[in-house]
Amino acid sequence: MRTTTLFVLTVMLLSASRSFAQSIPYGNNPAAGHYVDAGGVNLYYEIYGKGQPLVMLHGGIYGYIDEFSQLIPKLAEKYMVICIATRGHGKSGIGKEPFTWRQRAEDAFKVVRSITSDSVVVVGFSDGGHAGLALAAIIRNW
Predict the structure, then answer these.
(1) Are strands 52-57 and 121-124 parallel, antiparallel or unpaired?
(2) Considering only CA atoms, which of 111, 115, 1, 137 is closest in space to residue 57?
(3) Which residues contact 27 (CB under 8 A, 6 or more apart)?
(4) Going along the chain, which residue ranges are E strands?
(5) Neighbour count for residue 86 (Cβ, 10 Å)
(6) Residues 24, 138: Cα–Cα separation, whole Å
(7) CB atoms within 10 A of CB 73
(8) Where are the domains of the chain?
(9) CA-closest candidate to residue 127, choices 44, 61, 54
(10) Per residue in 73-131, pLDDT tens?
């Protein structure tokens, strides 16, 4: 009986913390959302905060902007947080070309340059980490 109660309480606490973190609809926030045309594909991104630009690149397959929901508010205190929905994810178009790391990086570059010409900090998770490395190479050679 106590194990069941503890389990239910844990689930309730986890659900409550997720609900609190989701009070801002990251990945579907009309107040912060924008689109940029990346060669015939509309890419969705959101901007939070002000300061040095910080780009967040989510993971692949089921990844999306909301993966960073617990980090965005804290980072937005110091940075202009730019969260990009990559092709085929969330509100971004899918396009007709096969997905590649280079394409993800070039798309991110187009989004970044539509916002700022400053240098950026890049945070990437999983596929976003690979794309972040490719993005660094593109920015370095720009």
Answers:
(1) parallel
(2) 111
(3) 46, 64, 65, 66, 83, 85, 90, 91
(4) 33-37, 42-48, 52-57, 79-85, 121-124
(5) 26
(6) 32
(7) 16
(8) 25-140
(9) 61
(10) 999 999 999 999 999 999 999 999 888 889 999 999 999 999 999 999 999 999 999 99
- Give 22's pLDDT tier (boundaries 50, 70, 90): low
Query: pLDDT at residue 20 above 50?
Result: no
**Residue 97 Rama label (left phi>0; alpha psi -120 to 50; beta):** beta
Amino acid residing at 140: R
The one-letter amino acid code at 5 reads T
Tokens linked to 85: 């929905």
Strands ordered across the beta sheet of 52-57 = 33-37, 42-48, 79-85, 52-57, 121-124
Tell me what the pLDDT averaged over the chain comes to.
Answer: 87
The correct CATH number of 25-140 out of 3.40.30.10, 3.30.1060.10, 3.40.50.1820, 1.10.3210.10 is 3.40.50.1820
